[in-house]
Recover the amino acids of this structure.
């Protein structure tokens, strides 16, 4: 009578480990599933090793989300960056608006003097400088509002004055500006409208 030797579970387990790390398993695209081994339990028929497709393992790994701590750190970083960047952006915007207002005042001053030389009188308002032929300023500036500033022209038979004030104080601009027949641009940053007594710039 022929006897058959029963293979020990440990030997079967080692043989499967050898197959697991052989090139043929790698070519088939399978990877072992890590699991906790309880040595108090009897080994299963297949040696206690489970196999899943490597693509399945990658897909399950990609489903892992962010922890609450990671999200809080990212939000904190964004808040710090915003707190630094936003004031700098606002300051640069105010500086650009004020520079544009000074340029517009110079344009209006030149246009008003040129208009007087042609028509013998000063224009009564900014619209006169745009509707004449040829026009001396563009229609946007003639409307009295441009790039965060409001402009107004006041004239008499012998003089004129132009003021520029921020559309939204301390937001679109901080300083107010003034010019007249003398051509000097003056500014005020104490919250009052600039006039002929304000500091020249």
């Amino acid at each position: 009578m022929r006897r058959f030797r029963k293979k020990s579970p440990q030997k079967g387990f080692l043989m499967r480990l050898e197959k697991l790390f052989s090139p043929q398993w790698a070519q088939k695209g399978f990877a072992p599933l890590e699991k906790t081994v309880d040595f108090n339990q009897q080994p299963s028929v297949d040696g206690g090793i489970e196999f899943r497709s490597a693509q399945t393992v990658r897909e399950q790994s990609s489903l892992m989300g962010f922890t609450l701590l990671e999200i809080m750190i990212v939000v904190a970083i964004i808040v710090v960056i915003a707190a630094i960047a936003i004031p700098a952006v606002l300051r640069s915007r105010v500086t650009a608006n004020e520079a544009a207002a000074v340029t517009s005042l110079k344009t209006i001053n030149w246009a008003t003097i040129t208009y007087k030389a042609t028509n013998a009188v000063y224009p009564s308002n900014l619209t006169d400088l745009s509707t004449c032929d040829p026009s001396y300023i563009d229609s946007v500036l003639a409307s009295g509002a441009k790039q965060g500033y409001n402009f107004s022209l006041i004239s008499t038979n012998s003089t004129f004055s132009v003021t520029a004030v921020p559309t939204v104080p301390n937001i679109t601009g901080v300083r107010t500006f003034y010019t007249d027949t003398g051509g000097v641009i003056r500014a005020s940053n104490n919250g009052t409208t600039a006039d002929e007594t304000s500091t020249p710039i």
Summary: The first strand starts at residue 30 and ends at 32.
